[in-house]
Each structure stands twice: as C-alpha cells, then as structure tokens.
Design goal:
The complex is a heterodimer of chains A (229) and B (382). Chain A has one domain: P-loop containing nucleotide triphosphate hydrolases (Rossmann fold, 3-Layer(aba) Sandwich), CATH 3.40.50.300. Chain A is 32% helix and 28% strand. Chain A has seven helices and ten strands. In chain A, α6 links the parallel β7 and β8. In chain A, α4 crosses α5 and α5 packs parallel to α6. Chain B is α+β, with helices and mostly antiparallel strands and 382 residues long. A six-stranded mixed barrel of chain B has the order 4-5-10-7-9-8. In chain B, α1 crosses α11, α2 packs across α11 and α9 runs parallel beside α12. The relative contact order of chain B is 0.19. The chains are: A alpha/beta (229), B alpha+beta (382). At the A-B interface, α1 and α2 of A face α1, α10 and α13 of B.
Chain lengths: 229, 382
C-alpha cells in the first residue's frame, strides 16, 4: 500500500536548511494499522504529511496504491487526497458553521454522487461512529469525543483506502480515547483500511499492529504489536 | 464547489464585522447611485432643454450667455420675414422674442429667491411646444407664470407660487397667473412674464434673443446665412441644442469632480474592505487548510470566500438601493440655471449593482489569495 524509498524532506528556515526527514525507507501493507512515535521535532508529522499528500518529499519515491505521489502536481495531489486519504486531526478541525451531518458530507460534495446517495453514505458513516442522533448538532454542541467521532466519520465517508491520524486521541480523556482507538482498529480489521497514526501516547500506539519510532528524521526501531489486535 | 450555506453561515460568525461590511458597501453604493443620478439628471435636463429645430438669434459675442445678449426688439419681425423655413402655426411664424433676466422673487411671507425670468409673448408657446399650462393662464401684464420646479430653484414653498398668489419681483408686485410644465427641461424652473414687464424690470429697451422654430433641423444654414448677411444687426445664430450642450460642458468639471470624489471614496472603501475581509479570512486559515486537506482545490475555496464577500456587498447594495429610492428618487436639485429631478432609473440602479459586485470581488480577492497562500502543512498548524 505505502512504499517510501529514500525519501528526504528539507526546507529553508531563514539562512539554514532544516531536514526533518532523511533517507527514510518504509513499507506499510494494505490493512495495517501503523503507529508512529517519537519526540517533538522527530519528523513524524512531516512523514504523515508526506504519506497523506499534504506535503511533497524533496527527494525519493513515495508510492501509494501504485502511484508515485512524489511526482504529483499540487492539483493532482488535491484530487488524489479527495479519493485516497481520510485525515483525522488532533483538534478535529471540524467546520464550526456546519452541522455534524454537513461536516461529514463535505468530502462527498466533490464527488459525482447524487444528493440521496450522499445522504445515505453520511448516515452510514455517522451510524458507524454512533452519532446518528447528533447529526444536526454543530461542533460547538458536541463533546470532544463526539467531535473526534464526527471527524472520523468525515475521514471515512468517501471510503478512502488510507486513513491518516495526527494525535487523534491527544485532546481526549482516556475513555473517549479508547473508544476512538477501538474504532480505528475495527476499520483496519473489518474494512481493510490502512491506517497511519502519529501519537505521543504509548497506550494509543499499543492499539496499532506495529509501532515505529522516529528520531531526528530517522527510523530507529520497530515494535511489532500485533497482539493488540 | 463548497455549498452556498458555508459562505452564508460564515457571514454570521462575526455580526459586527458583517454589519461593517454591509454598512460600508451600502454607503459606497449609495454614493455611486447618488453621483450617477445627480450627474445623469443634470446632463439629461441640459440635453433635453435644447431642441435641434430651434435656432437662437443673439447678439454677436454673447454665445455663452443669452442673459448678456442684446438685440433689437424689431429683430423678431425681421427674422421671421428674412429666414426661410421658419415653422408656421395657423399662419403665425414660430418666432419668439425673449428677454432672459436673472433676478429675485419675494413671496407674500417675505421669502426671497433668485431665479431665471423669461419675458415672452404668447408666440413663445409656438417655439417651445413642450411647455404645457398645468393650472391658470398665460401671463398678461402684471402677472407671472411659474414653472412647476421654480419653487425649488427659488427656495420658496410651492404653496407660495400657486395661481392667484401675490409675489414681488424686484420691487414690482405681481400675481401668479399659472403654473406650467416643460418635462425634463430647465424651463420648468423658470418664471415667465409678459415681455413688456421684463423690459421695465430689466430696465432695457433691447431684448435678449429671438428664438425661431424651423420646419426642419436641416434649415439651420438659412438662419446662419441670415445672421452673417445682416451685419447691421450684429447677430449670431446658434442651434438651441448647441447652446445647452455648451452649458452642459460648462458643468462638466463639476460632474467630473463628483465622479472623482465617488471614486476616491469607493477606493478607500475597497482598502477598508481588504482589512475587514483579511481579518475575517485570516482567522480561518486552519479551516481553509482543512478543506484543502479534505480535497477541495484552492479555486473552490477562493470562490467560496469571494461568494461570502459578494453576498455581504450585495446586501449592502440592496440597502443602498432601498435608501436611494426613499431618499433620492424624485427629489429636485437646484443648480445655477434651474433645477432637475433626481431619478433612480434602471441605469442608475445598474451602476449601483455593478459597484456592489466590484466591491465584493475586489475587496475579497487580495485577502483570499493571501490566506490561501501559506503551505498546507503550515496552515494546518496555524
């Protein structure tokens, strides 16, 4: 599913060149739930941004689902993201003026689906995260855990093969966090989604099939954790 | 495309900011509507005041002002006999001997206003067919007939100039004999009196001009030839339309100044709009980045932001149009040679609409581009 070969990312910051990722190699098979851990500034969010097509590598090849997205233009990446990636943010990033239903519907508005088809898919996604009864509430009327569930429904609704999550439980209490992690596990297990999750929390990482540690842009170790499944 | 509800609901996120955008755009659009209506009204009244068929014979060297012109009172008879192609009604040539005189009129209550007085004979109605008596009668000696907008030019209540009202012109008491209309022309703000009375009031033996109405506008060369051949009379022949066109160009700098003022204020409003909308968009940079992460192109988000600004500015345009209809439409505005009526015509409303659209687009484009420019990873963390 994901194949990173010798990818590096560097950018200029003032007079200096910063290289958050250097010569990184990574293979993630379809249906795997991968956790990326590491201290702040280790490059894990940069890697997540590259895998999700939000950023492009400075060098190397990044093949996802058979396509080398490192060569994509900004426009191609935008279209690719809409079809292949569901993004889950730490602070949910819901649109405050839209209801839960409308937030979840957003990725479908750029597809050719009819209104009725969109409605059915949104209801299915909200049902999956257990929030059908809150579909007409705005984010301000939801708890943090509920907001993150809406964000997950939004990431899932267009049925992308890849889900990326940046600290999805970082702003939640333990109970809500466990609920979110259980959902992610079930998506990998039952729906065959490939999930890449960045986290600082070892307990959250324990929910993944595999945990990788990054430090200063280099992959240090692997921590197979398939037993958590 | 992002749904329209997204743009609409975003507008109400910050109500004071929305009020500022709507109010600001309403003021600018109102100003443009007012400037367009005022300039249009003035231009319209001056262009409608001169007929191509009418030729003014006036003293040589007085082309810019009929009031300063002096010609013999006998010129009327000489011209109607000497110029070919003068129109005739029931055998009477359409030649009007006139005195144009600027003076003061005082009403019964002592209110005083300056206006243009025209000394005429009943023949004036043959050369100015647009003049229609609305009330009363044509003035005889000791009487005046007022245009229906004269009260506005004189700054006197309309009721003081009703038929039968007593007025004083200079020191001569007179009675208002009637009220006339001459739609869309400066004559509507004039006061007409009997030619003999104006001789006395203006203390002159001469007249200002003779106006001839020709059968055909193409007959002007005949009148011009007459004026050039009669060197003894020291005449100039002018098309009435050319005379008012020259007057119109005299007021052009005033109209240009109105446009410049409106343009500068509109430009100031656009810069104000940049700040307001930049603040509105900048507070949502992360949200805009989220939409991009979901798969919306920058173009779609840009359109939504412009849509948001357009809706606010069009709401302002609607407010401005309503205010203009209530406060401006039908108002009469006095100026040096008369008065004109301000009309919020479809063209004026269109000028307001175009201004509202331009404000909405121009005000939103730079802030939207600026807020969509940051790299996506950076914007998502903002």
């Amino acid at each position: 599913m994901i194949s990173c070969k010798s990818i590096s990312k560097s950018y200029r910051k003032g007079a200096n060149t910063v290289t958050p990722l250097e010569n990184l190699n990574l293979e993630v098979p379809r249906g795997e739930f991968l956790a990326l851990m590491g201290p702040s500034g280790s490059g894990k969010t940069t890697l997540l941004n590259l895998i999700s097509g939000i950023d492009t590598p400075s060098s190397g090849t990044l093949v996802i689902d058979g396509q080398n997205i490192a060569d994509f233009s900004r426009k191609q990446l935008t279209k690719w993201r809409s079809q292949k990636v569901g993004y889950i943010f730490q602070l949910y990033h819901l649109i405050p003026v839209l209801t839960a239903f409308e937030n979840v519907e957003l990725p479908l508005l750029i597809t050719s689906l009819s209104r009725a088809e969109r409605r059915a898919k949104v209801e299915e996604a909200l049902d999956l995260v257990g929030l059908m009864d809150r579909s007409h509430h705005t984010p301000a009327e939801l708890s943090g855990g509920q907001e993150q569930r809406v964000a997950i429904a939004r990431a899932l609704v267009a049925d992308p093969p890849l889900l990326v999550a940046d600290e999805p439980t970082g702003d939640l209490d333990r109970e809500s966090a466990n609920g979110i992690l259980a959902l992610l596990q079930s998506f990998a297990r039952e729906n065959g989604k490939t999930i890449v999750m960045v986290t600082h929390d070892a307990r959250a990482a324990a929910a993944a099939h595999r945990t990788l540690h990054l430090e200063k842009g280099v992959l240090l170790s692997e921590d197979p954790n398939l037993t958590s499944l | 495309m992002l749904p329209l509800t997204y743009a609409l609901r975003n507008l109400f996120r910050d109500k004071p900011r929305l009020a500022q955008t709507v109010g600001g755009s309403a003021l600018v659009v109102l100003l443009v509507i007012a400037a367009t209506a005022l300039n249009g009204g003035m231009k319209q009244v001056l262009s409608a005041s001169g007929s191509e068929k009418n030729i003014i014979l006036l003293g040589a060297g007085s082309e810019e002002s009929i009031q300063r012109s002096e010609v013999s009172p006998l010129l009327g008879g000489i011209a109607e006999a000497g110029v070919r192609g003068v129109s005739k009604t029931l055998g009477r040539p359409a030649a009007s001997v006139e005195i144009h005189y600027m003076t003061y009129l005082t009403d019964k209550e002592g209110r005083k206003g300056q206006g243009l007085f025209r000394g005429v004979t009943p023949r004036a109605l043959l050369v100015h067919p647009e003049v229609r008596l609305l009330e009363g009668a044509f003035p005889r000696s000791g009487e005046v007939m007022v245009g229906r907008l004269a009260w506005r030019k004189l700054g006197i209540p309309e009721a003081s100039l009703k038929p039968g009202a007593s007025v004083t012109i200079d020191r001569s008491p007179m009675i208002v004999s009637g009220v006339f209309a001459a739609p869309g022309t400066v004559m509507e703000s004039e006061v007409w009196a009997a030619l003999g009375d104006l001789h006395m009031l203006a203390q002159r033996q001469t007249v200002s001009c003779v106006v001839l109405r020709m059968d055909d506008a193409a007959n002007f060369p005949d009148a011009d030839l007459f004026a050039q051949q009669r060197l003894d009379l020291e005449l100039t022949a002018l098309r009435e339309s050319d005379y008012y066109a020259a007057l119109s160009s005299f007021f052009k700098p005033l109209r240009v100044m109105t446009w410049i003022t409106a343009g500068l204020i509109a430009a100031g409003a656009v810069f104000g709009g940049f700040n307001t909308l930049y603040a509105a968009f900048a507070s949502r940079i992360r949200e805009l980045a989220t939409l991009q992460a979901i798969g919306y192109g920058r173009g779609a988000i840009f359109l939504s932001l412009v849509q948001e600004s357009l809706i606010a500015c069009l709401a302002g345009t609607l407010v401005a149009s309503a205010v203009a209809l209530f406060l401006l439409d039908g108002r009469t505005i006095p100026f040096s040679i008369g008065a004109f009526t301000v009309s919020v015509t479809p063209q004026v409303a269109l000028a307001g609409l175009v201004t509202g659209i331009l404000l909405g687009i121009l005000g939103a484009v730079p802030p939207a581009i600026r807020c969509l420019r940051p790299p996506l990873p950076k914007a998502l963390r903002s």
